UniProtKB/TrEMBL annotation:
UniProt KW Zinc keyword: no
Domain of life per record: Archaea
Signal peptide: none
Name of the molecule in the record: Methyltransferase domain-containing protein
Pfam families: GCD14
Length: 242
């Protein structure tokens, strides 16, 4: 897939596909490359651009509210997620986190209970170019915990589910020594339960942080945080198996 960009306007298309807009029509060449300039029949120029992380957030098909880039950045930064890591994820949703981790080179197994959501997530992995590194499974991860603990341990466990505390309780049997747990929750009550489960399981370095980000506004009168939008997204709990 390639992004066709003209100013603030972006369109996601596959090589060989057509683009029809009020700016004209064009056919994306099969051999299109990043940086190519394509012209519509009306003479409007579009720049072809390869997908990167922020583009995934903006252009993957959504089945709900996806994890924000700010939260994904904290997950990667706090756990050191990297190429060749084995990641076990639950609560796939749109699949933005799995796509980011796959593009880092990690091997991801992710569970989504809703069959329609899971199918959309699989399509999104193709769009992101990580379908060979992200295995989207339909079902409840708690049903497979026994079989998952019998194989090669995971380096990272990422959860965005209401039953995260139950899964965290099994983290020592799922993770390699030094492996991390990262749990996202929109509600602090579930984070509290997750912390209790992590401590009961003997995990170390247990901490919960709130994600808040404020955009700055600059004008002739001065500079200040923007009053638009909501800075808070959710709570992230981290722990480590040692």
């Amino acid at each position: 897939m390639i992004l066709l960009c003209h100013g603030d306007r972006e369109y996601l298309r596959a090589p060989g596909a057509e683009l029809h807009t009020d700016l004209g029509m064009l056919t994306v060449p099969d051999d299109v490359e990043n940086g190519d300039v394509l012209e519509t029949h009306l003479g409007t120029e579009f720049v072809a651009r390869e997908l990167r992380g922020p583009d995934l957030f903006n252009h993957l098909e959504r089945t709900g509210a996806p994890m924000m880039p700010r939260d994904i950045g904290l997950v990667v930064g706090h756990t050191g997620a990297a190429a060749d890591d084995r990641v076990l994820d639950a609560g796939t949703g749109t699949g933005v986190l799995s796509a980011y981790l796959g593009r880092l080179g990690a091997s991801v197994t992710t569970y989504e209970q809703d069959p329609e959501f899971a199918e959309v997530a699989r399509e999104n992995m193709v769009t992101a170019g990580v379908e060979d590194r992200v295995d989207v499974r339909t079902g409840d991860i708690t049903d497979d915990l026994d079989s998952l603990t019998g194989g090669e341990p995971f380096d990272l466990l990422t959860l965005d589910t209401e039953d995260a505390p139950e899964i965290v309780a099994s983290a020592p049997n799922l993770l390699a020594d030094g492996g991390y747990v990262a749990v996202y929750s929109p509600f602090i009550e579930n984070s509290r339960k997750t912390v209790a489960a992590a401590e009961e399981a003997g995990l170390s370095g247990v901490e919960t942080i709130e994600t808040i980000q404020r955009e700055m506004t600059f004008d002739d009168r001065g500079s200040r945080p923007s009053t638009a939008g909501v800075g808070h997204t959710g709570y992230l709990t981290f722990a480590r198996h040692s």
